[in-house]
Each structure stands twice: as structure tokens, then as C-alpha cells.
């Protein structure tokens, strides 16, 4: 609709969500209709130009010609060869104008990877697009529609093209009333439809439980949805119908392998803008909000690391787990205990012993690790999760839930074992983590109430509340009294550990 209305607009989404595939398909369909020459080309090579806008213009025009030739267009649709030789800084716009003057069809451009343009090069290219767009009513030949495709939202392009991000400006080529378009994630039905293509081709089915589990773990993030299926069908070489348990196995393999997509995300965790948003989420605290916070929030959201809408949470469970594993890796190197020594004779996991061992570990290494931790505000949560991961993930799994403002981190240990009759059972142990900071009240009452609700949701009758006392006036280890057995408001038996 927007292209038919001759609009210039932005399509943005995190990396590896299908932007390029969608635009390539749309360009082919529009061109096949006969009255439009729709071309998708990548701006990626222009990244090397930096601020050299003349070099960026040359690289983009070369990419346009190569893309048109690669698509096998007839001669009358191809760009002019050579391009017009005009002053750098206006060459890109002049070249598009000359192409549109000669082309018998409406020209539509999809500029993929536009984020590669930087500094003066980005300003120059967008300014030329703006000038050409605004001259169209006077009969100036120029592309009828231009789509900027990349990570960034509309506001950044308005700034770079000379517009005011805070005001609606009808003259701006990148103004669509209020917002740009974002390529969405899959819903459950779309995942089922995608996986059904595999079933039609091979006869191998994904059960409904498997599809539901994929959605639960990925929240529809397209790369993760495809990566899980690829891991199961090709790398794990599963035969027969695919169930939810195999999805969990594939998830663990993906995380351990640290696939390129996941590595690209975690590499950004220590960027100041990313840390400013992610740290309070992990810590369960509220971020400090000022005039620059919205920019950091938009940046992290455009990366796909957090949800599009409140509350402030990591985008999906796989990203949640990856973030804590990466941040906790230095602390995990300090854990010397043997994971297999925590397995009881009946195959169950020895949670009481794990808690005792953590107290010893925390006394010996806690302060050192906190000083070393880059995410200082979330250090307690990260260190405990690293300890749990080291000892549990050899035979079981950890599920983590955290979000900004909740002042807690929920953990579920799932440990498979064999029952007395040979049946397969899953031992489940729930934990709630809270931090007592200076100037705050004892979090125990709120923690017990929150743990009660968590246990109720999991249909469990027991749990553990861990409270890290970080107040300057906190009692010494000898004064804390170790473990406390108590009950939640609804009467569930729980253990309270003050660390």
C-alpha cells in the first residue's frame, strides 16, 4: 500500500529476522506485474567508505548496477552506463534521476543494510534522497518509492536526513505520520505453517507440543525458529516425529555452540547503551531514566535484545539464558566442585548440599567476583546463576525469569531421573533471588509472597528464598545464623538463605 502511494519509508527489524528475504520476494513480485522496476540492493560494501561520501556514492551506484544485471532485467530497465559524472555529494541523486528519466517503468528502490552507511556518507545519501523526493511534484524524475531497510528505527534516519525527530514534517521523505514499519516475529500458527513445509517434503512431523515449546523458547524470533528446526532435523538427525523434549535438547546445543547469531548479540552486552538497559533487567531493579535513556532503550530494542512493549524484559528465554551464561562465565571458572557428586543414590539432585556448598563458595570468592563483575548492580544474581549452571547443567536444566522492576530473579531447576519402577521423572526445585540494598527494608516478606506465587504457578509445595545482604551495616557471617526454615503466606515450607 505504501509503495502504491509513492511513499518513502523505513522497514526495520533485528538482524536475521527475514528482512532481506521479504524485500527480495516483494521486489520480484512488483517487477513481474509489469509497470514497476523494483530493485533491492545492499549498502553493506559502503561501510568501508566511512565519511568519504564520494566513495560511498561510487560503491552504492556499483551495487545498483550489479543487482539489476544479476536479476536479468531487459536493457530498457537497466541503469545508464556509465552513470552521469557530476560533483561528488550530488552524484547519487543525479544518477537516480537520470535512470528514472530513461526507464519506461516506475522505479522503486529497496536499500538493504542501510545501517552500513556512516557519518557524512549517511547524511549525504539521505539528503540527496530527500531533495529528489521533494522535487518530484515539479516533474523531476526520481524513484517513486524508496525503502530504507536496516536495524534502526525512523527517528535515526530523520535526524541524519536533516529532519526533526520530535516533529511531524510532511516535507520529510521519511515521515509516515508517526512510525516506521517493523518486521514482526512469528506467532504459533506461522511456526506450525513453516514446519509443515518440512512435513510435506519429508513426512516428518513436529508435534503440537514441539511447536508450542519452540514458540515459548523463541517468542517467534525467526532465526531461532529456523535454527532449532535445523538443529533437530539435520545436526541431531532425529527420526520419527519431533517432540518438545528434542526441542529442549536442540536449544541447549545451540546455546553451547554459541552460533554466530547469538555471538553477535552477546558481543554487544558491554556496550554502554546496551549495559545501561540490560543491567537493571538482570538485577530486577528499575533503570535510571533521563533524557538519554530513551535512545539507549530504542537502540537495544532495535537490536532485538528486549521486548517491543513493556514490561522491560529480555526478548525470549533463549536470549535470557545466553545473557546470564555469558556474563557469568568468569565466575563459573571459580567453581571447583564436582557436578556428579551432587547426584544422590536414587538419581535425584541434592539441593540442600548445593545450598551449603554455595555458602562456602560465596564466603571465599563472593567479594572478589563482585569487584570483577562488569555488571556490578547484577553481580549477586550473575554469580549465583554461574554457580548453579556449573553444577546443574551437566544433567539437568535451569529456567530463569527476570525483568526490570521486579526486584527478583526466579529460577527453576529441572533434573530428570529414574523412579523406583523404572519410570522417567523430573525433579523440580524453585528458587527466588533477592538483593537487600542500602536504605531498603528487609526483602524477606515480599520475597516469601513472591516465592509463594511462583510455587503456585509451578504447582510446587517447597522452595528456596536466597537473600543477598549488600548493606554496609549487614551482619557478619557468624551473626547471620545460616539457613532458616519457614513458611510462605499460604503455608508452603521454604528455606531462606541469607548470603
Describe the fold and architecture.
- The strands form 2 sheets. A 6-stranded mixed β-sheet has the order 6-7-8-9-11-10, with helices on both faces. It has a 5-stranded parallel β-sheet with strand order 2-3-4-1-5, sandwiched between helices.
- Mean pLDDT is 89; it is low at 163-171 and 175-179.
- Helices cover 44% and strands 15% of the residues.
- Strand 7 (409-418) and strand 8 form a beta hairpin.
- The longest helix has 22 residues, at 351-372.
- It is of the alpha/beta class and 499 residues long.
Key descriptive features of the protein:
six-stranded mixed beta sheet, elongated, 499 residues, 44% helix, 17 helices, five-stranded parallel beta sheet
Main beta-sheet annotation: 6 strands, mixed
- SS-derived structural category: alpha/beta
Mean pLDDT: 89
Radius of gyration: 28 Å
Task: Please give the number of β-strands.
Answer: 11
Element order: H for helix, E for strand: EHEHHEHEHEHHHHHHHHHHEEEHEHEE
Amino acid at each position: 500500500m505504501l509503495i502504491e502511494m509513492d511513499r518513502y519509508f523505513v522497514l526495520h527489524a533485528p538482524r536475521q529476522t527475514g528482512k532481506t528475504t521479504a524485500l527480495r520476494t516483494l521486489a520480484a513480485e512488483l517487477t513481474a506485474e509489469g509497470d514497476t522496476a523494483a530493485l533491492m540492493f545492499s549498502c553493506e560494501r559502503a561501510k568501508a567508505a566511512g565519511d568519504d561520501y564520494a566513495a560511498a556514492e561510487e560503491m552504492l551506484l556499483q551495487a545498483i548496477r550489479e543487482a539489476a544485471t544479476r536479476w536479468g532485467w531487459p536493457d530498457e530497465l537497466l541503469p545508464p552506463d556509465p552513470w552521469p559524472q557530476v560533483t561528488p555529494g550530488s552524484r547519487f541523486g543525479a544518477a537516480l534521476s537520470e535512470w528514472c528519466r530513461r526507464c519506461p517503468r516506475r522505479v522503486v528502490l529497496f536499500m538493504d543494510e542501510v545501517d552500513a552507511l556512516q557519518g557524512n556518507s549517511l547524511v549525504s545519501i539521505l539528503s540527496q534522497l530527500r531533495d529528489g523526493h521533494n522535487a518530484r511534484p515539479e516533474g523531476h524524475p526520481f524513484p517513486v518509492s524508496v525503502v530504507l531497510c536496516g536495524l534502526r528505527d525512523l527517528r535515526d534516519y530523520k535526524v541524519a536526513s536533516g529532519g526533526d525527530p520530535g516533529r511531524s514534517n510532511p516535507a520529510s521523505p521519511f515521515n509516515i505520520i508517526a512510525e516506521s514499519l517493523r518486521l514482526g516475529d512469528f506467532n504459533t500458527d506461522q511456526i506450525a505453517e513453516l514446519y509443515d513445509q518440512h512435513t510435506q517434503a519429508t513426512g516428518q512431523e513436529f508435534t503440537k507440543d514441539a511447536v508450542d515449546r519452540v514458540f515459548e523458547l523463541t517468542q517467534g524470533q525467526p532465526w531461532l525458529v529456523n535454527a532449532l528446526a535445523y538443529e533437530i532435523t539435520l545436526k541431531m538427525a532425529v527420526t520419527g516425529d519431533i517432540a518438545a523434549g528434542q526441542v529442549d535438547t536442540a536449544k541447549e546445543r545451540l546455546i553451547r555452540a554459541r552460533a554466530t547469531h547469538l555471538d553477535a548479540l552477546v558481543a554487544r552486552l558491554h556496550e554502554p547503551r546496551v549495559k545501561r538497559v540490560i543491567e537493571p533487567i538482570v538485577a530486577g531493579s528499575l533503570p535510571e531514566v533521563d533524557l538519554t535513556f530513551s535512545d539507549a532503550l530504542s537502540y537495544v530494542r532495535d537490536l532485538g535484545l528486549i521486548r517491543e512493549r513493556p514490561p522491560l524484559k529480555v526478548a525470549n528465554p533463549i536470549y535470557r539464558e545466553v545473557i546470564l551464561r555469558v556474563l557469568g562465565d568468569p565466575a563459573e571458572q571459580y567453581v571447583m566442585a564436582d557436578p556428579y557428586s551432587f547426584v544422590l543414590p536414587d538419581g535425584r539432585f541434592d539441593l540442600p548440599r548445593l545450598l551449603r556448598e554455595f555458602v562456602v563458595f560465596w564466603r571465599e570468592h563472593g567479594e572478589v567476583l563482585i569487584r570483577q563483575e562488569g555488571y556490578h548492580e547484577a553481580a549477586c544474581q550473575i554469580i549465583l546463576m554461574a554457580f548453579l549452571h556449573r553444577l546443574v547443567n551437566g544433567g539437568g536444566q535451569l529456567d530463569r525469569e527476570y525483568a526490570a522492576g521486579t526486584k527478583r530473579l526466579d529460577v527453576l531447576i529441572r533434573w530428570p531421573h529414574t523412579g523406583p519402577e523404572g519410570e522417567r521423572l523430573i525433579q523440580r526445585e524453585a528458587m527466588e533471588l533477592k538483593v537487600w540494598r542500602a536504605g531498603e527494608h528487609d526483602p524477606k516478606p515480599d520475597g516469601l509472597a513472591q516465592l509463594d506465587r511462583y510455587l503456585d504457578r509451578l504447582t510446587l509445595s517447597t522452595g528456596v528464598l536466597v537473600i543477598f545482604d549488600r548493606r554496609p551495616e549487614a551482619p557478619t557471617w557468624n551473626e547471620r545464623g545460616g539457613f532458616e526454615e519457614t513458611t510462605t503466606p499460604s503455608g508452603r515450607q521454604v528455606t531462606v538463605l541469607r548470603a
